[in-house]
Amino acid sequence: MAEVDTAQNRFPPATAVGTRTRVVYDLLSPAGIAVSINFTDRAGEEIDRLTEETIHELGDNDGILLLLDSMQHRQDLQTGLRRMLNMIHMASGRDATLSSTPVAICLTKVDRLLLSHHELHEAEDAPDVFVSTRIDSSLDAVAKTRLRRFRFFPVSAAGVFVSHDCVRTATFYDESLTLRLAHGGSPVNLTKPIEWLIETMESPLP
User: Fold this and answer.
1) Which of 75, 109, 122, 140 is deepest in the core (most CB within 10 A)?
2) What is the CATH classification number for the domain harbouring 93?
3) Is residue 79 part of a domain?
4) CA dist 171 to 22, 92, 124, 192, Å?
């Protein structure tokens, strides 16, 4: 995964088609649960193609974390989520049954939606409610057509600055209208989706 240009706080360019970068994190929880998290960074347009490689990668996981752009039009969000869920369903090898693989559905760039302490607390303490009321109430119904275990998380890696009751994004446009990242922002829900996946993978199905 490309890193932010720390010298000028610039975001990395889009991943080029044909590029593969693999990152593996080996984690151990306080309870002694060992988890290996594998990331493969590749061009988004490649993921949209239903190839044998994509199906194999989706099917060879105990849990899946999906990243969807919350700045997309609502109809595009629904279409993108349906497409990814269909791919997960095919990868699970099931016919009519719901996939039992836990899926954390993350709506990114939520820093651009937050304006107050109340909204920030709702995003952190009631993420499903935030997604339903702030982004799209129909996404839950879409997910239920394919998944048995899922949860929505509004997330932001860029983060926010909090001052009194005001919340503002840690991103900004410079004089050349290039999006950059300010120092010192607090990420939103950055680790919660992974924590939920680990807990859910260790829990038996109801």
Assistant:
1) 109
2) 3.40.50
3) yes
4) 27, 38, 20, 22
For residue 118, what is the enclosing H or E element? Answer: helix 117-125
Asked if residue 3 is part of any domain, the answer here is: no
Q: Which of 105, 71, 75 is nearest to 88 (CA)?
A: 105
Per residue of the chain (206 residues), what is the pLDDT tens digit? 444 444 567 777 777 777 777 788 887 767 777 777 777 777 666 666 666 666 676 777 788 888 888 988 888 888 888 888 887 777 766 565 788 889 999 999 999 999 899 999 999 999 999 998 888 888 899 899 888 899 999 999 999 999 877 899 988 888 888 888 888 889 999 989 988 988 888 776 66
Signed CA dihedral, 149, 90, 110, 172: sign only: positive
Token pair 């590749």 is found at 42
Do residues 114 and 70 touch, judged by C-beta distance below 8 A? no
- pTM given for the model: 0.81
DSSP 24-88: EEEEE-TT--EEEEEEEE--HHHHTS--HHHHHHHHS-S-EEEEEETTS-HHHHHHHHHHHHHHH
**6 in any annotated domain:** no
| Number of domain units in the chain | 1
Amino acid found at 64: I
How would you class 11 by CB atoms within 10 Å of its CB: exposed for 0-12, middle for 13-18, buried for 19 or more? Answer: middle
Domain span holding position 136: 21-202
